[in-house]
Amino acid sequence: VADVNRDGSLDLVTANSTSQGLSVLLGRGDGTFLATNEEYLGFSSPQWVVAGDFDGDRFPDLAVVDFNSGLRVLMNESGVGCGVTATLVQRFAAGRVGGAVRVTWEVAEGATASAIWVERAEGPSGQAWTQPVMERSIEGRAVVEMDRSALPDRAYRYRLVARDGGILTVLDPGVLVEAQARLAFGLAGVGPSPGSGPLRIAFTLAHNAPIQIDVFDLLGRRVVTLARGPWSAGTQAVGWDGLTRGGMQAPAGIYVVRYAYPGGQERQRIMRLR
After folding, report:
1. How far is it, in rounded angstroms, from Cα 211 to Cα 202?
2. Domain count for the chain
3. In a domain, 7, yes or no
4. pLDDT of residue 82
């Protein structure tokens, strides 16, 4: 406990053995505290922290006892927490878009960090943080980053980290992106039926694979092939304009859509009107 930024109010500095760092909470003078998002990393297991003006500059310095590395002293040359913007992060969101995870963030004007980046940890608990390779673009004042290495069947937690001088700061504690339900091969929707206009055939692939989609009449004759060859995993769609493979309009009647994929196939009847 000390007035680390010399504003007349007592502040708190805590040793966090779990995150392997120190956290600073600035006192407001009314019994409440402001979390500054400043975190001093580089410790292995900090146990105790003591404040004192060790170099006579009237700023309280910090002596930290680490379980593994022993005593370390952090000299506070300008006041810990000075110039901190309480609403540094104005926006931080993450969600799945297609086969990637889209992360959008925006910081307040006047932020002094020399570098800001996104980190990712696998699982909802947020352990073993790494910095994935992401595609970055700008939309207005917001930064958009696409993580295309995220697997669809795994959950990830994303957080925003900054470097200001030699200090690493976790700007946002993290957003959880849930795993997607694993897709299977199958028809996802065929219609409209009955109908006289174009037919839309939606289908899913559990993984990248060669597939084939055909339309047959009730005598088992192939009317047209709509898709053949390798397709990407996910939900896809093709259309049928009602033409046969000879370029003629197919007559009204009952037809069968067949979706063939590795290890199986699925059929669905449709009714075509004039």
Report:
1. 13
2. 3
3. no
4. 43
- Judge if 118 and 190 occupy the same domain: no
Please indicate, yes or no, whether residues 202 and 121 belong to a single structural domain of this protein. Answer: no
Positive/negative CA dihedral, 198, 199, 200, 206: negative
Left (φ > 0), alpha (ψ -120 to 50) or beta: where does 29 sit? left
**Span 186-199, mean pLDDT?**
93
**The pLDDT of residue 199:** 94
Domain boundary among 133, 163, 179: 179
**153: containing domain:** 89-179
Question: Do the domain assignments include residue 80?
Answer: no
Domain CATH for 241: 2.60.40.1930
pLDDT in tens, 135-179: 999 999 899 999 999 988 889 999 888 876 666 677 767 789 998
CA dihedral of residues 128, 131, 135, 136 (deg, nearest 10) = 120
pLDDT, position 200: 95
Task: Concatenate the DSSP letters of all residues of the chain into one string.
Answer: -B-TT-SSS-BEEEEETTTTEEEEEEE-SSS-EEEEEEEEE--SSEEEEEEE-SSSSSS-EEEEEETTTEEEEE--SS-TTTT--TT-EEEEEEEEETTEEEEEEEE-TT---SEEEEEEEETTTT-S-B----EEEEETTEEEEEETT--TTS-EEEEEEEEETTEEEEEEEEEEEPPPPPP-SEEEEEE-SSBSS-EEEEEEESSSEEEEEEEEETTS-EEEEEEEEEE-SEEEEEEE-SB-TTSPBPPSEEEEEEEEETTEEEEEEEEE--
